[in-house]
Design a protein that fits this description.
The protein is mostly helical. It folds into two domains: about 5-75, no CATH class; about 80-415, no CATH class. It is built from 18 helices and two strands. The chain has helices at about 5-15, 25-45, 50-60, 65-75, 80-100, 105-110, 115-135, 140-145, 145-165, 185-200, 205-225, 230-250, 250-270, 275-290, 310-320, 320-340, 350-375, 390-410, and strands at about 175, 180. The chain has a two-stranded antiparallel ribbon with strand order 1-2. Strand 1 (about 175) and strand 2 (about 180) form a beta hairpin. Helix 16 packs antiparallel against helix 17 (about 350-375). The longest helix has 25 residues, at about 350-375. The two termini are about 40 Å apart. One of its GO terms (molecular function) is lipid-linked peptidoglycan transporter activity. Keywords: Cell shape, Membrane, Transmembrane, Transmembrane helix. This is Lipid II flippase FtsW. It is found in: Membrane.
Length: about 425
């Protein structure tokens, strides 16, 4: 191959990248190959070759651009993680068949026994669309917009305070025409994602940096206290934030004191809320009447009030047996553990932390949801991802899985953090 000057290195790199389908990997590959070629070039110059001859030899050593490009395409090939997708699909099917067992409730409240099922299918379809869109968006762009996302979250809470439309006595939604959007859960998730990027610029080893980080951390929790929102959401935010603080600062003492302060804040939120003992008693009755396999006895499912999402797991156990409930629990445990596990395969530290935080949000939601549905907790207002009925929450969950899938597909990418 005849080469002439620096331009030929660029042409070689462009030729290599033509064989690589992952567009977002091109810059990284070009930088790595360029550095490798320059290193070889310097070695030949030290041996007495002219710059032109050294460049020719360096490019010759690199081999065919087509072959190298095909090899690198295998390394940077972007593909979905089907274990996650299949698990999520099973959880969605579980939610739909449980809605089918509760069709009598749907008829009583809405005059259509397939009301919840139809809504679930519609929102799942929208969620899949959101998943596909976010899966092919370069997640690294989120990092540079972290401050904007933080401000957006504050704006969402202010809008919610001014225009909220209570659903089941919970001030989390805003109505836009016939559509209800769960702004509360959306804002809390955006807060946590934004803090992953913001925390990278904070100098935690300085007093000023720590104070700044603590203030940013407490603002969302302050909104939850002032606006008198659910303890469940506050716990999700607090546990995930403490985890983020620890992996960002590695400061055990700071993490401990912040955890102590957050616990006090949670106690304040708990003291402000009243809890539905009626639904809690129904859940206990459903569990007591459940059998190992098959439908339980003595309870008419139509006694369950309109907020069926809160008792979706206990309804599932009553309708299909404890064996099916344990199977669903195993699927959830697999999903949580596997999401944390794949974070170890990510080269980019920002991407790694983003997966950990999103996985933590899912883990907290599942744990709180199952504890409530097993009659252990008497407070609840957190959707169980992919199982509970709720349009906004299904779409939010799909967006979370989409970001994780996006990062996984680019697991070989490296970024500055």
């Amino acid at each position: 191959m005849e080469v002439k000057g620096e331009e030929n290195i660029i042409k070689y790199l462009e030729s290599v990248c033509l064989k690589i389908k992952s567009k977002r990997a091109h810059n990284q590959i070009k930088e790595e190959l360029y550095a490798h070629i320059e290193e070889k070039k310097k070695d030949y110059i030290k041996c007495g070759d002219s710059e032109k001859i050294a460049e020719e030899k360096a490019l010759r050593d690199m081999g065919s651009s087509d072959i190298l490009g095909e090899e690198l395409n295998k390394v940077h090939k972007e593909k979905f993680n089907y274990r996650i997708l299949i698990t999520v699909a099973f959880l969605i099917i579980t939610g739909i068949i449980t809605m089918y067992s509760l069709r009598g409730n749907a008829y009583n409240y809405w005059g259509n026994e397939y009301f919840f099922i139809n809504k679930m299918i519609i929102y799942t379809t929208l969620g899949i669309g959101a998943f596909l869109l976010i899966s092919f968006f370069d997640y690294r762009k989120i990092k540079n917009k972290s401050a904007h996302l933080y401000i957006l979250s504050i704006a969402l809470f202010i809008v919610l305070f001014l225009f909220n439309s209570p659903v089941n006595n919970i001030n989390s939604w805003i109505n836009i025409g016939p559509i209800s959007i769960n702004v509360r859960d959306l804002a809390v998730n955006i807060f946590l994602i934004s803090l992953v990027g913001i925390f990278k610029d904070i100098k935690w080893d300085t007093k000023k940096g720590m104070i700044y980080g603590v203030i940013l951390s407490f603002i969302p929790l302050g909104f939850l206290i002032i606006l008198n929102y659910s303890l469940g959401v506050a716990i999700v935010y607090t546990v995930t934030l403490i985890f983020l603080l620890y992996i960002s600062t590695k400061n055990k003492k700071l993490t401990f004191w912040l955890m102590f302060m957050f616990i006090i804040a949670l106690i304040l939120i708990y003291s402000q809320n009243s809890y539905d003992n009626y639904l809690h008693n129904i859940i206990k009755e459903l569990l007591d009447s459940s059998v190992f396999i098959g439908k339980g006895t003595r309870v008419n499912l139509e006694i369950i009030p309109n907020n069926i999402s809160d008792c979706i797991i206990s309804s599932l156990i009553y309708s299909f047996g404890w064996a099916f409930g344990v199977l669903v629990l195993c699927l959830v445990l697999f999903l949580i553990i596997y999401m944390f596990k794949i974070s170890g395969k990510i080269c980019d530290i920002y991407g790694k932390r983003l997966i950990i935080i999103i996985s933590s949000i899912f883990a907290c939601q599942y744990i709180l949801g199952f504890l409530y549905n097993f009659g252990i907790l008497n407070f609840y207002s957190v959707s169980i991802p992919f199982i509970s009925y709720g349009g906004s929450n299904i779409i939010i969950s799909f967006l979370g899985i989409g970001i994780i899938m996006n990062i996984y597909m680019g697991k070989s990418l490296r970024g500055e953090y």
